[in-house]
C-alpha cells in the first residue's frame, strides 16, 4: 500500500511539474508573440507616421540606430525579426504596396462616366503617392542594387498599369493601340511624374490634378 501511495504521489508530482512547465512555456510563447507584434508595429509605423519618418526627410538608407530610435525598439528586437536593413526596407515597401492597393480602389465603375472616372483615378493616385512618398522614394533608390526591392517595385508598377486597364476598359477595349494608350495614361499619373511636379517643380495638388485630367482625357478620347 505504501508503495502504491508513493507511486500515486510521484505521478501527481510529475503531473503538477508538467502543468507548471506547460504554463511557463505558454507564458513565454505569449510573451514572444507580444514582443514580436510590438516590434513589427513599431517598425512598420515608420512608413505611416505623419511626423516625418526618415524616408520623408530624405534619408533613403536610414541606419539601424535611426530606425530603432524612431520605432522605439532596441537593435536586438529589430534584428530578431529582420535579417538586416534590406529585409526591413523590403517589408516596409511590401506593407505600403498593400496600403496603396486599398487606397487606389475605385468602386461603382460601371455607373460612372468618363470624366468622373478620370477625376477619381487622379485623386486616388495622388492620395496614394502622398501616403507612401518616403517609402516610394526609398524603393526606387534601392531597386538599383537590391533585386528583391526591384522585383516588388515591378509588381507594384504592373498593378498600377492593370488599374488603368480596369478603370478605362470601356475606352480602351475598341482601340487597336489600347496597350500603348494604357501605358501612356499610367505614365502621366505615375509616382515619378507626381514626385517631379510636386517636389521638383513645387506644383500644388490642384494644378497637378487639372493637368493630369486634361492629359488623360486627351489620350482616351483621341
What is the secondary structure topology, with strand pairs?
Layout: H1 2-44, H2 64-71, H3 75-81, H4 85-103, H5 114-142, H6 147-167, H7 169-172, H8 178-188, H9 191-200, H10 205-221
Helix pairs in contact: 1-2, 1-3, 4-5, 4-6, 5-6, 5-10, 6-8, 8-10
How would you describe what is shown here?
It is a single chain. This protein has two domains: 2-81, no CATH class; 86-221, Tetracycline Repressor, domain 2 (Orthogonal Bundle), CATH 1.10.357.10. The longest helix is centred in the first third of the chain and has 43 residues, at 2-44. It is mainly alpha-helical and 222 residues long. The chain has helices at 2-44, 64-71, 75-81, 85-103, 114-142, 147-167, 169-172, 178-188, 191-200, 205-221. Helix 5 (114-142) crosses helix 10 (205-221), helix 6 (147-167) packs across helix 8 (178-188) and helix 8 (178-188) packs antiparallel against helix 10. The chain has ten helices and no strands. Mean pLDDT is 74; it is low at 1-5, 26-41 and 46-56.
CATH architecture label of the largest domain: Orthogonal Bundle
Q: Give the DSSP E fraction (strand runs of 2 or more residues).
A: under 5%
Low-pLDDT sequence parts: 1-5, 26-41, 46-56
Number of E strands? 0
What is the CATH fold-level name of the largest domain? Tetracycline Repressor, domain 2
Please give the count of helices: 10
- Under CATH, the homologous superfamily of the largest domain reads Tetracycline Repressor, domain 2
